[in-house]
Design goal:
With 413 residues, the protein is an alpha/beta fold. Helix content is 42%, strand content 25%. The protein is built from 16 helices and 17 strands.
């Protein structure tokens, strides 16, 4: 079974609103074995909506629509759908009662424009809106299901979870679907693909392997569909073991948790405390670490040594080191590590110094040159990285690679 997600609204097309609804609905449909064929965004124009519906009805069985159900003149979705499916708008007592209760709680009068929201096509199955005034509408034509919902995310999500998903599961025989994810960091998708060449050649034809990259990370997703749950689980476990053996050096989790939480667990399990000394990242690494609840158990603090004066006065970096090697150097980062361990009185420290850009680079140290180090009282490791010309991306990559270094450092001790 295939699906189209149709989002209606000029605000989506001009970039005023980010379409998070389509992303979330795709996840829900995929989880029950419905393949999303396309995402489509169209303006609040009758011809655009009808054209998108014609295309979707031709090759998909499920069409989920959001937007255009409010009380204003540009909200025409209900009228278009009513005409498209050959119905007539009639007053719906249940929909009006829902509106009345909401307005009573707000101590407001119901305007005529709002009352019109209670008129629904007589050939639709209304879907109760638990959090707003506009009811959802489900239309059925042969084996096609079209559902129209408000664009407000929390209103739409309640309808999908409580109405749309149960309806699809009860009306259609959907395949079982299994996913297994590997969360990797510090390695690119090309390198991972090389490590998985043999697996790709020999994997079953019905097993999917997807590479889903983000900044400094790649999520691997294995997918199997079928009807025999025990068989799917057995085959997935065999595939999981093969893939893990090939890429385990780069895997930080097989559950959807952030890298900073994995690092936090390692620190807590080993009873270690951590501090950071940051230059080009400006506290971003500390931000990642403290975004995890309970991080106060192991994180003591950060020194933002953005200037050479602070590197010298607070962290104890020698003037001679800065003069001879510069702020962006292995030698400076090693002294930053020593200073952080001493000043913050921690078991482990991270230090970073680099050229984030877009200016400030040189032939010897171009923009994107970053030194990252991790140390404890006995050992220190400092690595040079060459990132990009984009400042934001360089800061994010520095944060990810610093956490990867810390993870590896802790696991090796």
């Amino acid at each position: 079974m295939k699906a189209t997600i149709l989002s209606i609204g000029d605000e989506l097309l001009i970039g005023q609103t980010l379409n998070t609804n389509a992303h979330w609905m795709s996840q829900q449909l995929t989880a029950i074995g419905v393949d999303v064929l396309r995402h489509v965004s169209v303006s609040d124009k009758r011809a655009e909506i009808v054209g998108a519906l014609d295309t979707a009805m031709a090759d998909t069985q499920v069409i989920l629509i959001t937007g255009g159900l409010g009380p204003t003149s540009d909200d025409i979705t209900k009228d278009v759908l009513c005409e498209y499916f050959g119905g007539a708008l009639v007053f719906n007592e249940a929909a009006y009662e829902n509106i009345r209760q909401i307005f009573n709680r707000r101590n407001r009068e119901i305007s005529e424009a709002t009352r019109q929201v209670a008129f629904l096509p007589d050939n639709c199955l209304p879907i109760q809106n638990a959090f707003g005034t506009a009811a959802g509408m489900l239309f059925r034509r042969d084996d096609r299901v079209v559902v129209s919902m408000p664009g407000v995310p929390y209103e739409m999500k309640a309808m999908v979870e409580n109405g749309v998903i149960p309806y699809l599961q009860s009306e259609f025989t959907l395949p079982l679907i299994l996913h297994h994810h590997f969360y990797t960091a510090g390695v690119g998708e090309t390198q991972l693909a090389e490590l998985l060449t043999d697996f790709e050649k020999n994997k079953p034809a019905d097993m999917g392997l997807a590479y889903l990259p983000s900044v400094g990370k790649v999520r691997l997703r294995l997918t199997l569909k079928g009807q025999d749950k025990a068989d799917l689980q057995s085959r997935m476990q065999a595939a999981r073991e093969t893939v893990y053996a090939a890429v385990k050096a780069h895997v930080y989790a097989e559950e959807d948790i952030p890298l900073e939480q994995v690092v936090g667990r390692l620190l807590a399990e080993r009873g270690k405390t951590l501090g950071t000394a940051e230059s080009c990242t400006g506290g971003y690494i500390a931000h990642l670490i403290t975004s995890v609840a309970g991080s106060s158990d192991y994180f003591k603090g950060s020194i933002i040594a953005y200037s050479n004066e602070i590197k010298q006065q607070v962290l104890g970096v020698q003037a001679a080191t800065l003069e001879a090697h510069g702020a962006v150097s292995e030698q400076t980062v090693r002294e930053m590590l020593s200073g952080a361990l001493k000043v913050l009185d921690t078991d482990v420290a991270i230090a970073v110094s680099g050229v984030a850009g877009p200016g400030g680079g040189s032939e010897e140290k171009p923009v994107g040159t970053v030194y990252i180090g991790v140390a404890d009282a006995e050992k220190s490791v400092v690595l040079r990285h060459g990132f990009t010309n984009n400042r934001e991306r360089n800061i994010q990559l520095s944060g990810v690679l610093a956490l990867v270094m810390l993870k590896n450092f802790l696991q090796d001790r």
